Amino acid sequence: MIEAGAPAPDFTLMDQNEKPIALAELKGKPVVLYFYPKDDTPGCTKEACNFRDGFAAYKKAGAVILGVSPDDTASHAKFAKKFELPFSLLADPGAAVCQAYGVWKEKNMYGKKYMGVERTTFVIDAKGMVKKVFPKVKVDGHADEVLAAIKA
Question: Which of 149, 151, 95 is nearest to 121 (CA)?
């Protein structure tokens, strides 16, 4: 997994509106890059809605929020519309960016092993360096912790 103090791996992914978003183009602003397993599932919905509810405070801090999952752009568009998400959800269908950040892990559910996203958030500073990593995120209170890290 990418650690604090390391340069954030660059990428370009399509958002829910089929618009390419390149991390390199966001230099100069803090970026919240949060990886989540799946659109419209309970934990992921709660996490996205918490970022949505705190969006004004993030915007005031000059931060950009980007959600990333292996879901496709159509799934992201439906999820963003359903919950009125005001930020970009990036499609990583081959999980290449998830792998680059070290969040693509073997998971175990009901005795079945499979590969999936370990819910993780990276705070990237204006220079493109990883400022803070939140591994194995517990959703409750997470959006507030991330905002505090941006302001720190």
Answer: 149
pLDDT tens profile 42-65: 999 999 999 999 999 999 999 999
Rounded CA separation 144/7 (Å): 24
| Assessment of whether the complete model's pTM goes beyond 0.70 | yes
Q: Strand pairing of 64-69 and 88-91?
A: parallel
Q: Does domain 39-117+133-152 have CATH number 3.40.30.10?
A: yes
Residue whose token pair is 């705190």:
54
d(CA 29, CA 25): 10
Q: Which of 44, 90, 117, 123 is catalytic?
A: 44
Residue 44 annotated among the catalytic residues of the structure: yes
Which positions ≥6 away from 16 have C-beta within 8 Å?
73, 76, 77, 79, 80, 88, 89, 91
Amino acid at 39: D
What is the rounded distance in angstroms from the CA atom of residue 59 to the CA atom of residue 73? 24
Separation between Cα atoms, residue 63 and residue 151, nearest integer Å: 10
